[in-house]
Amino acid sequence: MNDMGAGLRKALMKAESLNQSLQKEVNMVRAISKVFFATWKIELLLDKVTPVMELDEHSDIWKDGVLTVREALDIVVERAAGEHQPVLRDILQVNRLQVKLRHKDTTEVEYYTANHGWIRLNIMAVERDTFTDVISLLFGWQSINEEKWKEKEHKRELEEANSHLMEALEEARRASEAKSDFLSRMSHDMRTPMNGIIGMANIAMECLDDKERVREALQKIQSASRQLHMLINDVLDMSKIESGKIQLLREHADLKKLLESLLPGMQTIAKKYNVAVNYKGFQTKHRYIYGSPVHIQRIASNILSNAIKYNRDGGSVTVFVTEEPVEGCQDKAMFILTVQDTGIGMSEDFLKNRLFIPFARECSEEKVPGTGLGMAIIKEIVQLIGGEIQVESKLGEGSTFKVYTPFELAPELMEKKLNKERDDKTILAGKRILVVDDNDVNIEIATFLLENHGAECFTARNGREGVEVYLAQDEGFFDLILMDVRMPIMNGYEATRAIRSANRPDAMDVPIVAMTANAFTEDKRKCWAAGMNDHIAKPIDVEVMLETIGRYI
User: Fold this and answer.
1) C-alpha count within 13 angstroms, C-beta hemisphere, residue 304
2) Does residue 152 lie in a domain region?
3) What is the C-alpha separation between 485 and 551, in angstroms, rounded?
């Protein structure tokens, strides 16, 4: 009885041990199933392969739950996509696997299958003989579709980033070449008028007794100065465009007057090139608009000057302005500036691909001076206005530019004008003007021009001194103050605010006009915000200065 009890206990213990072993295997399978979707055990010495875990869809491959090693490896190869089979067959040779796993426990191979897409076969050494050769393996398969997709996406992103980088490098290279070419041309184009200014000044100094020769030299200095001024404006405007800081004004303006005021200067340029300018008039119903006068004139002058410079000897330029209604907007009108020339024209490639590119020029600098920035600048301005430019051109026959610009219509503009019937040299007679500037040459130029037209001038070398000179005089003593902006001790904005806040009746009434090299639109806004009435850009144009002063005195 005791023997029977002891035997029963042994049997129970054995059963419990087997149950524990079975549980361990179940736990192992569960653990493996979290990593692999299929697992085979390969026993090389017994030449058999059994599934540890296999998908139902592949259960039909097993013969009584057992395959030979060769059969199993052939099935693995057959499941692979055709292009992967040769490599996989080579890797899954038993002798090769034993060599690979002699000094390590795992190896792996990735391949594509029709049923599962991309998978990774993990080959793990389970048992070894006394000579370290593997005698038992475990094959485990993982799906790596998501991993491959991420890898492919990452590769695509890298290729795209690399493509963008190469494009940026190429763009930088082109920009560098264009700017190098631009600097080379600018060096030539700026030195040419500078040479004229310096040379003609030397001639004038040597011929002081010959009034006619001095007059001729001074006229050439003025012409060269205007050319240099134009070049500088182009560079500064392009800088503003590239930084996105170009801004438009909204001023009450006479569009007809703005455009026709350019014609005398254009006629002078045309005479130099032996080109006739035919003005067919302002063929519009309206002429008064709200717009940005300086930018409107910039568009027209640039297109007109190009039509003249790129013309032929004895050629002509025809100019006129027409008007069209803006659909659905009665308080606006579309004004069309048309400029036709009989000049050299443009090639189809230049017209389509390079006309509005900064620094691009089809004609060499030896033939026509300029920076190659003008068309890029006006296209930007026209787009800011909300218009467009249409160009037709044929090489050797000429070009036609049409600039469409929509403007808000304004009532008739009533302007205060200088009395032209008086002697031009005395139109400011009896007017007292305070000139505030830190530069002695600028003061000398301004006072000479003003006194030459009859004004009495008082001067100050900085903003604080300007305020002191103003306050030292009685109320209403000054008819106008010309105020520089950039000055030491106190700048023009601060000085203007100090004058406007002074405790005297004329503080808010005395006209203050900025006289500064800060000629951009935002600079004008700052002047008005500080309390100034208007703005005159340096270098000073006498007619512009007199017209501006005439609005306030």
Assistant:
1) 27
2) no
3) 21
CB 546 within 8 A of CB 453: yes
The answer, yes or no, to whether residue 510 has pLDDT greater than 50, is yes
Q: Which CATH number does the domain housing residue 465 bear?
A: 3.40.50.2300
Give CA separation, 431 vs 102, 452, 455, in Å.
107, 12, 5
Report how far residue 272's alpha carbon sits from residue 454's, in angstroms, rounded to the nearest whole number: 34
Q: What is the mean pLDDT of residues 465-493?
A: 93
Cα-atom radius of gyration of the chain, to the nearest Å? Answer: 44
User: Average pLDDT over the chain, rounded to whole?
Assistant: 83
| pTM listed for this prediction | 0.50
Number of structural domains the chain divides into: 5
Residue 73 covered by a domain:
yes
Residues 269 and 402 reside in one and the same domain:
yes
Tokens of 420: 């032209």
Tokens 């992967």 belong to residue: 84
Determine which helix (DSSP H) or strand (DSSP E) holds 498, and give its type and residue range: helix 492-500
Same domain, 495 and 349: no
What's the mean pLDDT in 222-233?
Answer: 76
Count the Cβ atoms, other than its own, within 10 Å of residue 296.
Answer: 26
> What pLDDT, on the 0 to 100 scale, is given for residue 421?
44
pLDDT over 70 percentage in the chain: 81
- Give per-residue pLDDT as tens, 147-172: 888 988 999 999 999 998 998 888 88
| Bond prior to 539 in cis (omega within 30° of 0) | yes
Final residue belonging to a domain, choices 77, 111, 143: 143
28 and 67 housed in the same domain = no
pLDDT at 111: 93
How high is the pLDDT of residue 241?
A: 62
Same-domain check for residues 378 and 298: yes
Q: Cα separation of 361 and 352, whole Å? A: 13
DSSP summary character for residue 66: B
Q: Where does the pLDDT of residue 365 fall: very low under 50, low under 70, confident under 90, or very high at 90 and above?
A: very low
**Strand intervals (E) in 342-478:** 388-394, 398-409, 432-436, 456-460
One-letter amino acid at 4 equals M
Instruction: Name the nearest CA neighbour of 288 among 262, 319, 261, 257.
Output: 257
Same structural domain for residues 317 and 446? no
Residue-range definition of the domain harbouring residue 310: 249-409
The torsion angle over the Cα atoms of residues 109, 112, 113 and 119, rounded to 10 degrees, is 50
Model confidence over 51-68: pLDDT tens digits? Answer: 887 765 555 666 667 789
What's the DSSP call for residue 105? S
And the tokens for 62?
Answer: 């097993």
CATH code: domain of residue 279? 3.30.565.10
